Amino acid sequence: MKLAFILAYKNLIGAGLRTWLNVGILAFSFILIIFYNGLLDGWNQQARLDTINWEIGYGELRTDNYDPFDPFSIQDAHKPYTPEEFPMLTPILIRQASIYPHGRMLSIALKGIPADQTQLELPTTYLSSQKETIPAIIGKRMADAAKLKEGEEVLLRWRDNNGTFDAMNISIVKIFDSDVGNIDAGQIWINLEQLQAMAGLKEEATYFVTNEAYSHQEIHGWTFVSQEELLQNINEIIASKKISGSIMYLMLLAIALLAIFDTQVLSVFRRQKEIGTYVAMGMTPGQVVVLFTMEGSMYSFLAMLVGGLVGLPIFAYLAINGISFPDVTQDMGVTMASRIFPVFGIQLILGTMLLVIVSATIVSFLPAKKIAYMNPVEALKGKLQ
Question: What residue intervals traverse the membrane (predicted)?
């Protein structure tokens, strides 16, 4: 085996430019596979963490008639509760309303949340301000859409539980920046007690955000949606991106493997005298097959060596500094940070190495197995077989 390894290495180095062209394209495929999957893993981790911290916590306990995808369900989606009934959970009440910024009308979801909650990263402490009649916080997307600034007042119109319309000015006390669009676009957050009083829904909520300690038991009138169910959309988007991305880099890998296959076929064809010499010197056909297969698989080892030298500094830089994306990507309705930090896990790197080594070995063995059926005498004479 040691002799075969030395011969394979010398044959590859002796091939010169042809070897390094194959190694180069295989190394490029190796780097691209790790980079793309690392980028998606980083996006996935950040999106899940941001969604948990800003929006869903460890799950939601919703009223039976609340459907977040059906705006017509909001009007009747509320049920009474007592703080003792759902301790440590964060109640949220949603009402439909309209605002009139700069002479325009915008329909919004008016959300009430306790000002003293600490579970979500919403800056709700600003809602306890005593300077304004109704202090409100909004996200930067909502601020851009309504062209509102901090300290500005805007007329709010809402309908209470009896269907009566009322209106009052609210003050924007804070514009927060979050990567989670679901708690931002088309929404205004005010103190829960204030919204309950305005809507005539004292101690009523649309849903609760649960914490880590919550253990669900069947409660009449309420439906529990787990964290994994709420993260299902993100998981599906990441999975679809991985599939579409894999088509691109698998095609690139296929080109690299095709080049190795072609090189191996040419080697077996042109080096028949050499093959005959190996057999004449005592090597069995099986050992010659192993030698040629080892030559082919050695492309993958050289490719990983080159890929490591080129890719590791790039991966380290990207993992520390991240990759910046334009702000327009945050308005697509998908939780996506403006800067994504790729995650290059050991499982990803080892899996990619295994894929490249196995693929290169298989495509090297296919042409080399023909050697086992060669007549060594005719091969030594240089007759084509």
Answer: 20-39, 247-269, 275-294, 301-320, 340-366
Q: Where are the domains of the chain?
A: 1-53+233-381, 60-213
d(CA 187, CA 208) in angstroms, rounded, equals: 17
Over residues 71-88, the pLDDT tens digits come to: 888 888 899 988 788 877
- Helix (H) / strand (E) element for 354: namely helix 346-368
User: What are the E-state strand segments in 68-182?
Assistant: 79-80, 90-99, 106-113, 135-139, 153-159, 165-176
> What's the rounded Cα separation, in Å, for the pair 376 and 197?
96
Q: Do 40 and 328 touch, CB atoms closer than 8 A?
A: no
Q: Tell me the Cα Rg of the chain.
A: 32
Q: Are 183 and 141 in contact (CB under 8 A)?
A: no
The CA distance from 115 to 95, in Å, is 17
User: Quick one: how many helices (H) and strands (E) in the chain?
Assistant: 10, 13
Q: What is the pLDDT of residues 270-319, one digit of tens each?
A: 777 777 787 777 778 788 888 888 888 888 888 888 988 998 999 999 98
CA distance 28 to 51: 34
Measuring CA to CA, which residue among 184, 164, 42, 39 is closest to residue 108?
184
CA distance 195 to 174: 18
What is the rounded distance in angstroms from the CA atom of residue 323 to the CA atom of residue 242? 18
